[in-house]
Amino acid sequence: MTDLTVRTGLRARLDAATPAGRDRAVDALRAAAILGVVLGHWLVTALVTDGTALRAASPLGELPWLAPVSWVFQTLAVFFLVGGHVATRSYASARARGTSYRRWLGARLARLLRPVPAVLTLWTVVTALLLLTGAEFTTVHTLVKLALSPLWFLLVFAVLTALTPLVARLHPLWPLVVVLHVDLLRFGLGAPDRLGWLNLAAGWLVPYTLGAAWTRGELERRRAGALLLAGGTAATAALVAFGGYPASMVGVPGAAVSNLYPPTLAAVTFGLAQCGLALLLREPLRRAMRRPAAWAAVALANLSAMTLFLWHQTALMATTAAALPAGRLPGLHTRPDGLDWVAARLAWLPVFTLVLAVCWAVFRTWELPGPSRTAGSKVDA
Questions:
Q1: What is the model's pTM?
Q2: Cβ distance 167 to 83 under 8 Å?
Q3: Is-contact 47 335, C-beta < 8 A?
């Protein structure tokens, strides 16, 4: 049997396992959001060695004109949009079947959090070994912080999922108003920066409740997506140009203000623009997903979405650490301060992808409920 025959059979089984009424655009948007986060981190995260320790750095700090890269790859708002849509639709379906809230929530959180113990276990062992072998504390702190940074997303997403029955009909304007007032207090009236962490929930609640509005059928017309895209883009441009917000939509080490940690009003309006674009792309994506090859790639990515998300930083760090004996390699250990670093980092992306594929092969079963599912298994929502 040839490889082509195997691939064709796999595509056919995945296509047959997909319910006829499934909106494949939802899965395509989720896969695109995960891919954006992974590539974004690989492109803007550098581990620089000073001879004794590894420290985090970013080309966005050295080359601020690269900020548009963050506009392309900071796709978390799309993930929360899709998450809100899927969760509210799933909860409505569960209620119709008579499923209790506790059982519904348990199933949702189990699927979300199943891969987490593997990451925590590995990095607990790695941290202990590094400390016992005398590694610099700065290096250990840098590595652990990067490896576990995706967990903040899962925690926020889990909280919003648990609140789904309460926020299913909440208008996105209300959490947006909270973000606006928090930023006014922080940046306009000198309130403590810690107040900004209220936006960690409120900021991501905006796209999450947009997803709920999608479920209610309120965003079906193209006009809704166009208004979100135009309004979000205009508001973000004004906030960056005249409001003093950073142009980068991701955190930059050493920067006085981060748009992401915690989310600022600029990050939220930028997310509105992304959500508007995502809504406009639904119909083209539905047409594209009719192709078996395209759908197979998206379906497989969704089946392992959390594994890819949780292990992509580990793949980057494993590559960086494994190459240390070879010296300071461009794009891997050197300062991200020029176009030569950017070109070298692009060349490393296939290596990161290969290492992530190894992580996926080893840890993907943690994402599966019970016995591993085969390719012919039914594709989940």
A1: 0.91
A2: no
A3: no
What digits encode the pLDDT tens for the residues 20-34? 678 899 999 999 999
CA distance 308 to 154: 13
Spatial CA neighbour of 29 closest among 225, 172, 173, 174: 225
Angle between helical axes of 305-322 and 137-148 (0-180°, round to 10) = 160
CA end-to-end distance (rounded Å), the chain: 32
- 147 touches 116 (CB < 8 A): no
State pLDDT tens for residues 301-313: 898 899 999 999 9
Spatial CA neighbour of 133 closest among 142, 125, 122: 125
List of E strands, the chain: 46-49, 54-57
Per DSSP, the three-state class of 68 is: helix
Please report which confidence band the pLDDT of residue 8 belongs to, taking 50, 70 and 90 as the band edges: low
35: helix, strand or coil: helix
Residue 373 has pLDDT above 50, yes or no: no
CA–CA distances in Å: residue 101 to residues 86, 87, 155: 15, 12, 19
